[in-house]
Amino acid sequence: MDKLFVYVDGGARSEPGEAGIGVAITDARGNVVEEISELIGRSTTEVAEYRALLEACRRVIAYKPQSVVFFTDNQRLANHINGVFETREPHIKHLIERAIALLNQLPQWRVNFVDERAHHRAPRLVEQAFHRNLQAQMSHERLEMLLLSRAASLNEDSMRKLIEYAERLEDAG
Asked: What is the rounded CA–CA span in Å between residue 8 and residue 109?
């Protein structure tokens, strides 16, 4: 691939809290090459933004493009990566160093700040990661409620068998 455009975003539900990243990689015609939408554990929004850039870099390197333009709605991130100003925060400085090391594996790159209204793909992917996780939690809770309601109607012998079966499943899994 000659040129790729990459939209990155990260977000956390609280500061810090459950965090997710979103990355949309497109070709020069705007066709989606790859999308990443995943939770990354407990983090701040700022760290999630850098983690999104790191993941985007790792993925983009595999495509061996000649040029990559990254877009972010985080002006601090763009300014840090482009060397406009430095940070005093050691954990952010470490993320910046890791990102630049990955970016320098690309023949040509730049990180552009864009207004959040023009930056809709990656934030949508972050929200999708949170939504999928919420759906999985709700599904798990429904299954627990169903199991509890069924177990409540069992006699003592059947309850013991259910517990033994659950323990075997736990050991096997």
From this structure: 14
Please name the amino acid found at residue 149.
S
Number of domains in the chain: 1
DSSP character at residue 44: -
Domain assignment of residue 46, given as a range: 3-134
Q: Is residue 150 part of a domain?
A: no
Residue 148 backbone phi and psi in degrees, to 5: -60, -40
Residue type, 97: E
**pLDDT per residue as tens digits for the range 136-154:** 677 667 777 878 788 888 8
17: domain CATH number is: 3.30.420.10
DSSP 107-138: SSEEEEE--GGG--HHHHHHHHHHHHHHHHHH
Rounded Cα gap, residues 72 and 92, in angstroms: 16
